[in-house]
Specification:
By secondary structure, the protein is α/β, with parallel strands linked by helices. Helices cover 43% and strands 8% of the residues.
């Protein structure tokens, strides 16, 4: 396990390859940001907008997948108010048992900002069962959920014949996920991302029929080509598109954030993944599996933007990364009908012994942020 010498991202993230100088791909992309021709990108975006107008259907020029959070609120308002398009929003909704009150508020807030929206709602029983399979097979609560999330707008695109879809940021630029094969605004290969590339069969129980899981299935390449589907990373075309700026914008327009302290939620901002709370547990699971959680991602972006020194990023990551208050775990246990002991036993099955060491009865990462061994 190594950490990037500029930010604090480790090389345990799937698909990440550091260069010979020990620098992660996302930091290398950040180096090139001052060289971006933003006028050329805007011209390209205007051409994309014209594609949406030329292929409008049912009165809508494009689709945007939304949660009511910082990125989707900014995207929806940018597309409508800056590009002059009429978007149809698609919300892949969590079941009522999982949805947080703030999540319901933020979706309602986005509708009240003047948008039409379709709620894309997989059956709660199927949802929970696939979550359990995702957790027990991969130590990832959201593997199946992300399949439904990413499939939602493309599925609606096929049904409503609205070929233009906007997403947020390109993972190749923000975290260095190069498996998508593109570092620009083209998101048509998003189905090949790390979480969803394995397909739904990787989490489906044998006794569950395919007809129960249609909403989790991303369209095939042939379906996308035949429908002239065009998926675009909108963040690629917006100069200050990022976690902090998007949150500031969306909070000004009514978005609610988390009031919890970072030691409870493993999040130093409180304005990410707001619609439900199991994500906090899942970030703890990721920390146990890969050695990093949400705080590492947050501070790494701030370091690349020049808003934070690496030393400050290291300090915050040591304090808060992977933290999760017991109340969130206990709620998840009630959701699945298991005991805390059963959950803890399950979690330990996924602890990566290559990067963790146990001394004095406690686990700690084997390498410090300066890449020196610990213990």
């Amino acid at each position: 396990m190594r950490y990037c010498k500029r930010c604090v991202q480790p090389d345990t993230r799937p698909g990440i390859r550091f260069d010979d100088e020990g620098i992660c791909p996302a930091c290398r992309f950040a180096e090139n940001a001052p060289e971006v021709d933003w006028e050329a990108r805007r011209a390209e975006l205007e051409e994309i907008a014209e594609y949406g107008r030329a292929h409008a259907s049912h009165g809508y020029d494009c689709l945007i997948g939304v949660s009511g959070g910082k990125d989707s609120t900014r995207q929806a308002m940018f597309v409508r108010d800056e590009l002059g398009l009429n978007p149809l929003l698609v919300n892949c909704a969590y079941p009522p048992e999982q949805l947080a009150d703030r999540g319901a508020h933020n979706i309602a807030n986005l509708i009240e900002l003047g948008f039409d929206m379709i709620n894309y709602c997989p059956a709660p029983g199927v949802w929970k069962r696939l979550q359990w399979e995702s957790l027990t097979r991969y130590g990832n609560l959201f593997k199946s959920c992300e399949m439904a999330l990413y499939a939602s707008a493309p599925r609606v695109s096929l049904g409503y014949r609205i070929p233009l879809i906007f997403l947020g940021e390109n993972p190749a630029q923000t975290v260095g996920e190069l498996c998508l094969g593109t570092v620009d605004g083209n998101a048509n290969r998003v189905r090949y991302g790390n979480t969803i590339a394995s397909g739904l069969e990787s989490v489906m129980p044998r006794d569950m029929g395919a007809e129960r899981t249609i909403l989790y299935r991303f369209p095939t390449d042939a379906e996308m080509e035949n429908s002239m589907m065009r998926i675009v990373y909108l963040g690629y075309y917006i100069r200050d598109f990022g976690k902090r700026k998007n949150a500031e914008f969306s909070m000004r327009h009514g978005m609610q954030v988390r009031p919890d302290p970072p030691e409870d939620i493993g999040d130093i901002t409180g304005h990410e993944a707001l619609d439900e709370d199991f994500v906090i547990v899942n970030q703890m699971l990721k920390y146990i599996k890969l050695g990093f959680g949400k705080v590492v991602d947050q501070v790494s972006e701030e370091i690349r933007l020049g808003n934070m020194t690496r030393e400050e990023g290291v300090r915050l990551a040591r304090l808060y990364d992977g933290r999760c208050a017991p109340r969130f775990v206990e709620r998840l246990c009630r959701y699945f009908g298991i005991s805390r002991a059963e959950f803890d036993e399950l979690v330990e099955r996924f602890r990566n012994r290559d990067i963790w060491r146990r001394t004095d009865g406690r686990w700690h990462l084997a390498v410090d942020f300066d890449n020196t061994p610990l213990g």
